[in-house]
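Hey L., structure's done. Input below.
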Amino acid sequence: MPKETKETKKTTAGGIRWRLWLGVAAFAVAGVTSAIAGLKVREFALTDPQFTLSRDRKGALEIQGLQYASGARVARVFAGDFEHSIFSVPLDERRRRLLAVDWVEDAAVSRIWPDRLIVRVRERKPVAFVFFRSGVLLIDPRGVLLSPPPQAQFTFPVLSGVRENENESQRRERVRCLLRVQEELGSPFQDVSEVNAADPDNIRIVAQVNHGTVELILGDRNFAARYRNFLKHFPEMLKSSPGARTFDLRLDDRIMAED
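Output:
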């Protein structure tokens, strides 16, 4: 086998370096070409009239899921996007603004080729009324306060014990008390008109019983058993304490009537 000389090694190394540089150059050219193509595609998507969100096109902006949230407020989020390409719409930013609209719990915005946007809204679901000096509001399971929509009718109970200066976390804790009572009582909860959660360890309710209104002190547990026991003994308690309208049920073996 012929012996490899220094000159041969230099020639071989030089050839490898040239091939390496040629490969790098080829990749660079391909990268530049791809970048230019990408810019042209972007420019096309942003400027071609077929992608324009037009006010004249029926259904260009489709909003789904609205019942109580203001359709006008939702539509205003996209007011500046008309007569521009749908690909110029910042979807995440639009979703963030939608979440600030009263009654909107979640939202998604989608581009529909070639020139439409679809907005899907999930609204909050209130569970009770709250009464403040400033007026009547609704409250959802997360403690978010909602303005009652015009002409809407709800049959929720009142959640008392909520204060105007409380934060959302504090309100949420009081809503949990109401939902616990509702879950434990089941169908009899339909007779409850008010849940007082001012003290979560000592919950009170106002209920309609035998065509009359009574206040029941339930405490912090055994709501269903205590309520059933009260209904069972209520007729005889009326005989012994006909004027009583408040009853303490916190002791499971007895019921205390308060005048």
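The chain is about 35% helix and 25% strand. The CA atoms of residues 137 and 147 lie 5 Å apart.

-- N.
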